[in-house]
Amino acid sequence: MGERKAFIKDTFVYGLGNGLKKFIGLFLLPFYTRALTVGEFGMLETLGTAAALLGGFLSVGLDSACGYYYFKASDRQKADVLSTTFYLRLLSFLIIVPLLFFQKPLARLVFGDSDQSFLIVLLLLLVPVNLMMSEQSHLFRYFRQPWRYNIITVVKSLANIGIGITLVIVLKQGVQGAMWARIGSSLLVVVLAFGVFNFRKYSFRFSLGWARQLLKYGFPLIWAGIAAWIYNSSDRFFLLHYHDLREVGLYSIGAVFSQPVLLINMAVQMSFSVLFFKLYHKEENPNKPATRKMAVDIYSLYLSGSVILATTLSVFSDVLIPVVATPDYAGGARVVPMLVFSYIAAQSFQTMGPGISLSEKTWHFAWITGFTAILNIGLNFLLVPRMGFIGAGIATLISFVIYWIVKVYVASKYFPIKYPFFSILMFYVFGVGVSLLITTFEFHASGWMKFLAILLVTSCAFLFKLLKWEDVRMVWSKISRRET
User: Fold this and answer.
1) Where is the chain membrane-spanning (predicted)?
2) Whole-Å CA distances, 422 to 143, 340, 352, 428
3) Do residues 484 and 454 touch, judged by C-beta distance below 8 A?
4) Which helix (H) or strand (E) holds 222?
5) Helices (DSSP H) in 36-170: which residue ranges?
6) How many whole angstroms separate alpha carbon 57 and alpha carbon 332?
7) 382-395 core/surface letters (b: 16 or more CB in 10 A; e: else)
8) Rounded to an integer, what distance in angstroms lies between the CA atom of residue 336 and that of residue 389?
9) Are 373 and 227 in contact (CB under 8 A)?
C-alpha cells in the first residue's frame, strides 16, 4: 500500500503543478482566439506540431535512456549519467544551425508560402530550447522534488502569458508573437531550473561509456518517436493538404480542451516510472510480486480517474468551447471524445508495458510505432478527405488503441503482469460509447442527462472493481488537508 500512497501523493502534487500550468495557459486562450483567426490559430498549432517532430528526432531518445540508466547506475555514477546527457543535449543546438539556411524551402513545405520563413526560424530556435527544458524538468522527477517542478511550471506559464499578451494583443505581432512567447518562457525555465536548483546535481564529466549506452538505448527511440509523431500529429498536415487551416484550427481547439487528460497523463508518467523502477530494482524476490501488484493497482486507479474525466470533458465540451473561445470554434467539440480517449490509450501503453524497457529491447518500440504509423497514415488518407477533422480524430483513436494492444502483448513476453483485461476493456469501451453517443452523434442531451452519463461511468469504475473507496478517501484527504 506504500507505493500506492506514494503514487497518489506524487501524482497529486505533479497534477497540481500541471493543473496550474494548464489553467494559467487557458487564460491565454480567450485572448488568442479573439486576436487570431481560426486559420492563424491553426498555423500556430501546425508550428507546434512541426516542433514536436523535429524535437523527437533531435532528442535521440535521451529522456527515456537517462531515466533508465540513472536508476540502474550506482550512486557514484548517477551524476555522470546526468552530465553526459546534458552535454549530448547541447549538441542539438549545433545540429539546428544548418537548417537555418533552408528556412524558405521549409516554409514552402509546411505552409506552401516562403513568406512565412521567419516562422521557421522561430520554430528552429524553439526546438533545442524545449529539449533543454525537458532535460532540466526530468531531474525533478529523478530526485522526487515535485514542488520544485511546480515552481518552474508556474513561472513558465506566467512568463508565457506576460510575453504572449504583450506581443500578440498589445503589439499585434500575431503568430510570431505567440512563438516568441513560447521561446522566451521555455528559456526562462532552463535558466531558472539549472541556475537555481539543478547545477549541483551534475559532475560535469562527459563519459564516453555512458554516452554509448545512452545512445544505444535511445537510438531506436528516434524512429519510434518519428512514427509516434505520425500517428500523434501528422493529421494536421493531412487536414492542411485536403482542407485548410480552419479545419486544423477546429481540430486543434478540440485538442486544447482535451488537455486535462494529458495533464493527468503527465502527472502519472512522472510519478509512476520513478516508483516502478525504484521498487523493481529494490525488490529482492526475483519474481517481483510487489512490483507487479503495484503496476496493476496504479493502472486501475489511473484508468478509473481518466475515463471519468474524459467523459466529463466530452459531454460538456459543446458548452465550454464557445464560452472560453468564440462560437467560431464551437465545431471543435465534436472531436473531443476521440482525442481524450486516444490520450488514455496513449498513457495505457506507457504504463502497462514496462517489460520492453526492463529487457532493454527498445527496438520493439521502433517496429510497433512504425506499424501504427503506417496504419494511421492509411486511415488519414481514407477518412480525412471525406470527414475532415472528425476523420482525423477517428484515425487517431483507432491507431492509439491498436498501439496499446500490440505493445502490451509484446511487453508481456518479457515481464508478464496479470491485469484485469476484461474489466479494463469493458470500462474503456463503455466510456467511449457514452461520450460518442452524446457528443459525436449530436444527441441533444439535457444537462441532467449529461450528469447521468457521468454518474453511470463512475459507477462502472466501482462495478468492475477498478476503483476503490479507500482511493477516493485518500484523494479527498489529500485535497482537504493539502498534505505534501
Assistant:
1) 12-32, 52-71, 86-104, 116-133, 154-171, 183-202, 214-231, 251-277, 298-317, 329-345, 365-383, 389-410, 422-441, 447-467
2) 36, 21, 15, 10
3) no
4) helix 208-233
5) 38-58, 62-72, 75-99, 103-111, 117-142, 146-164
6) 30
7) ebbeeebbbbbbbb
8) 11
9) yes
CA–CA gap between residue 193 and residue 247 (Å, rounded): 38
Q: pLDDT tens for residues 265-297? A: 777 776 777 778 778 878 888 888 888 888 888
pLDDT, tens only, 88-100: 888 877 888 888 8
- Grid coordinates belonging to 368: 510497433
For the ranges 282-286, 392-396, 467-471, the maximum mean pLDDT occurs at 392-396
C-alpha cell of residue 64? 527515456
Q: Which amino acid is at 279?
A: L
How many whole angstroms separate alpha carbon 411 and alpha carbon 405?
Answer: 10
Give CA–CA dist 451/428, Å, rounded. Answer: 18
Query: Where is average pLDDT lowest: 58-62, 157-161, 345-349, 469-473?
Result: 469-473
What per-residue confidence (pLDDT) applies to 478? 46
Among 198, 221, 244, residue at a domain's last position: 221
Q: Quick one: CA dihedral 46, 52, 145, 272, positive or negative?
A: positive
Residue 410, domain extent? 1-8+234-479
Going by C-beta distance under 8 Å and a sequence separation of 6 or more, which residues neighbour residue 66? 81, 82, 85, 135, 138, 214
| CA gap 295, 423 in Å, rounded | 16
- The reply to whether 125 and 77 lie within a common domain is yes
Q: Which three cell numbers stand for residue 209?
A: 561509456
Coil, helix or strand at residue 174: helix
The three three-digit cell numbers of residue 123, written as one number = 520554430
- Surface-to-core class of residue 208, CB atoms within 10 Å of its CB (0-12 exposed, 13-18 middle, 19+ buried): exposed
Instruction: Measure the CA–CA gap between 99 and 359, rounded to whole angstroms.
Output: 36
Pair (325, 459) in one structural domain: yes
